[in-house]
Amino acid sequence: MAGYAPRLPWLLPLLHRAVPPPWVRAACGAAGLRASTSSAGRCGALSGALSCRLLLPPGAAGSAPRALSVAAGPEPTPPPAPTAPRGAAAGPPRFDARRLLALARPERWRLTAAVGFLTVSSVITMSAPFFLGKVIDVIYTNPSNDFTDSLSSLCALLSGIFLCGAAANATRVYLMQTAGQRIVKRLRTTMFSSILKQETAFFDKTRTGELINRLSSDTALLGRSLTENLSDGLRAGAQASVGVGMMFFVSPSLAAFVLSVVPPLAVLAVIYGRYLRKLTKMTQDSLAEATQLAEERIGNIRTVRAFGQEMAEMEKYTNKVDYVLQLARKEALARAGFFGATGLSGNLIVLSVLYKGGLLMGSASMTVGELSSFLMYAFWVGISIGGLSSFYSELMKGLGAGGRLWELTERKPQLPFNEGITLGKDTFRGALEFKDVEFAYPTRPETSIFKDFSLSIPAGSVMALVGSSGTGKSTIVSLLLRLYDPIAGTITVDGFDIRQLNPLWFRTKIGTVSQEPILFSCSIAENIAYGAEDPSTVTAEEILKVAEIANAAEFIRDFPKGFDTVVGEKGILLSGGQKQRIAIARALLKNPKILLLDEATR
Question: Where the protein is mainly located, per its record (predicted)?
Fold first, then answer.
């Protein structure tokens, strides 16, 4: 319906009763017959027949409806999602340090402060073995002297230093965790914005569960890798570096002997990290499939129950999560082997220190205090190596998740989101024209829907498209909304190619009622207000007015909470007719220039 003007009295009965008036029914009935093609529209025949009627009100000039016959190809049912969902651009982009730094840049001051507190706490922690070794030497070299006062003072001083280290460590954890939450929030916002800006064809071939999994699970993994895990990794790295340095300071020969086990561990870590990164991506993909299955079945529980398919769906979901479990077992096996090897290396370090240190003490090359300090440093280095192993493991998991995220955030929509020209009030009248349009759905390019399709709809007119199911009626609505672009030909609005117009602006001038109207899980008033350009500015009087026009006010008042009644997910708590009338009210709210009703009056 082009050039909608609710002031026309003959149009109100159509909207008020939500069924076509007699003159519309008569015209649409006649349109079921093949009529001669007029100059107003033509289409190269594919299969099926789509008849278009330009309907005029009774008493208007030429009151007998003018008919045109348009042959059209079959309109496919919504294309099924592929088995292996891949909605992003081909080939995952390389995930490198630049992306990590760009993501963390807004939190640089918070992270810098956290690193500073980490340095303080690490220095204090790693200085403890050295001073404790000196205390032991004092005790062992002065067995007969009374050193209680000096020992008490030294212990009190060390206690104060340790308290400062604990405070610095606590501050470090707080700053890192809050920075992580802020990064995750920003990443999720960016992800959601990127998803909403993608073209409709993207959603035709990408599963909802896949997108939700990336939005929730993958962002949390990456955020944790960037902050908490990075903090633990930096702490472990700092402690390992200081520990190794102090080991060389205490005894260079013993340190060189002990650290001979590090190179094999480094090689093992690289192999393990690459394997884990690949395994993590497979796990996240499989988990997304399980999430998609659960979300779809739970959302359609009435259909599942009506056909008695509960047990079959349980088996399907069990198979999905069983595969996730298999991947988790592989990860557990790899982690067990890696951490077992690192744990063994730590114990071997301690054992080698005892062996070599005992020999050095026997030759008077090392004191008991130095050996004690060295043992404690070796112990800390062993713990730090374990921490670095955990850090590397979590980092690889985060990078695997990050690759999936950047496939979406860096994907460029094939159709513009908010680009193009806008028309002024005097220029925009709502005249629509299809000229030699050819179209096929991106998911089924081999099935042509239209070829050489032409249709003219003057401003201020009412056009009814009548035909059997699958002849392309809803496809025309999708093309007018620019959910897709035609392969060839042009669609014009007041003489302007629709591809020149700003899609976001143009859709605000269109009121739409889909074939199966979808409502959000909020109140009836909020669902109706959703049709406005700015829902927050809609008044109760405006909502009531359009509800009355759509013949919805009466049944809404019968609800205990009236317009504040929550309709449930997708409007499940309402009947089909009630949902359609609310959807009609939503479409009328902004008084659109163009009103598209896709079987909304059935």
Answer: membrane
